[in-house]
Amino acid sequence: MNSSSPSIACILEARELKKSFLFKGELSTVLEGLNFSLSQGQFISIIGPSGCGKSTFLELLCGITRPDRGQIFFCGEEITGKTGILGYMPQDDLLFPWLTTMQNILLPVRVRGANMNEARQRIAELIPLFGLQNHLNYLPNQLSGGLKQRVALMRTYMSSAKVLLLDEPLAKLDALTRAQLQTWLKEIVAKLQLTIILVTHDIDEAIMLSDRIDLMSIAPGCISESINIDRTTTHSDLDLYNLKQQIQAMFIDL
User: How far apart are CA 104 and CA 90, in angstroms?
Assistant: First the structure.
């Protein structure tokens, strides 16, 4: 576990991002001087105090909103303010209540105008991996919270984006379901070789899932610390405990 930079080529980069919003008639700066890089196959968790701009950062990356200043590059091309390039899964599942599980999963395929038969074949291969084989014809109100998040993640995956942005997808689940889905998500990431940026408040979750943990400072937010975790090494419980203590100490200083 260290703070060195990965040697794999960067595919996503944010440079000197700044973003402000009007709040009660006054301009409030949420992000300023934020720099970030992501390599293919990395799983990066972003943690920081409430209100430091973590969700705003994901919205900038996927083009929902534009920065006041700064640029975002994907595979060497500027994508600042462009949508449809990175996959985005917000905290709420946002499943359409009148669509079945299968119809919700197919939605991004329809939006792209891609081949539906090929998409259905791919979904048939993936359904057992996502644990949804018995729920394809269910409406969202017939699904548990954990199943809804599985559907939402699969829908995001079917956008065919090379990078998935997950904004606290497990935050509203009960502790047992959350622990189960953390283990499941780790397996999914490994099997599908996903590249992910996860926003979370849960330090244990970040340590369990990540190759790198980025800490954001209080608003105006920026990346203040980065900690790499070597996933090729088996870490002892003491190592993980010490890492958690280290991160908690960093929070005190933010």
Answer: 15
